[in-house]
Amino acid sequence: MSASCKNVVKKFGSVRAVDGVDLEIPSGSVFGLVGPNGAGKTTLFSIMAGFIRPDSGSVTVLGEKPGKLPPGRLSVLPQDARLAKGIPVGRQLELMARLQGFPKRKARDEVLRVLELCDMRNYAAAAPETLSHGMAKRVAIAQAFIGNPEFVLLDEPLAGLDPAQARRIRLLVKREAGKRTFVISSHVMADVEALCTHVAIIKAGRITAQPSVDQLTRREEVVVVRLSRRPEQSTRDAFAGLPYVLEARIVPEEKQLVLNVQPGEMNQDEIITDIITRLSELGLSFVGLQKGTSLEEAVLAEIGKDGG
């Protein structure tokens, strides 16, 4: 495991922001940390980064207490990262590289390398205040890749990026996954679903679940078909009696047919082929088909348990 939290508690006055958290983050994973506002995500993030200490419990990152890690093994993108005004971004990142032990010339080369990763190499001489929000965010992401960090904490990494910029960062994380461990906090479930292999759901300072994304969205058990028009009850009835369908339901307002399936004589790919064939026979066109529910639905269902 890259990181482990055991019975971690952090209080601010009478508020238990983190309340007995147990968490295991597999090495090489892209691990999502999700939950509602005020759930404790930022506090837990700050504890793992070594910014604050827990009141009780234990935290290890790469086998060490966060504050004891040598420079460069752990890197962080805070949600509201800001660079100093009036100083070229390249010079500021060069200082960060020097603090990690890079000699002066190699520090400059390293800064150009990480800026290139985020398509910002041509802006090394720019002052931070001249950059758009999205460009400044990409510079901040670049600093998180200085050196060869083994554990990378990214808080809302895609917030404020346009679709093309966000896609570039998603591809960067996917390319680097396996070489290092990423922990990503985000309110945008589509981003988490696109990036993460595992997810932990935090609610009121406690972890309620920490499955793989495939397990949480039930990708082996559910098929969701988005139709071109609102489905009728007859559509549900046409699928309810099939041998591989455990339950069929329609969501008219979403134009969805949702099937709980159980592969047996037919595997899931064969089931999906059969579903498409039957839709055609019924004269129904569809605009999308996915294995599993959306991560957003799964997280909302988990957060809503026990009257939440």
Q: What is the topological layout?
A:
Blueprint: E1 3-12, E2 15-25, E3 30-34, H1 41-49, E4 56-61, E5 74-77, H2 89-99, H3 104-117, H4 133-143, E6 151-155, H5 163-176, E7 181-185, H6 189-195, E8 198-203, E9 206-209, H7 213-217, E10 222-227, H8 233-240, E11 245-251, E12 256-261, H9 268-281, E13 286-291, H10 295-303
Parallel strand pairs: 3-7, 3-8, 5-6, 6-7
Antiparallel strand pairs: 1-2, 1-4, 8-9, 10-12, 10-13, 11-12
Helix pairs in contact: 2-3, 3-4
Largest sheet: 6 strands, mixed
Q: What average pLDDT do the residues reach? A: 90
Q: Report the helical percentage.
A: 25-40%
Shape: globular
Radius of gyration of CA atoms, rounded to a whole number: 23 Å
**CATH homologous superfamily identity of the largest domain:** P-loop containing nucleotide triphosphate hydrolases
Structure description:
This protein is an alpha/beta fold and 308 residues long. The protein folds into two domains: 3-216, P-loop containing nucleotide triphosphate hydrolases (Rossmann fold, 3-Layer(aba) Sandwich); 219-292, Alpha-Beta Plaits, CATH 3.30.70. Helices cover 33% and strands 26% of the residues. The chain is built from ten helices and 13 strands. The strands form three sheets. The protein has a six-stranded mixed β-sheet, with helices on both faces. The protein has a four-stranded antiparallel β-sheet with strand order 11-12-10-13, with helices on one face.
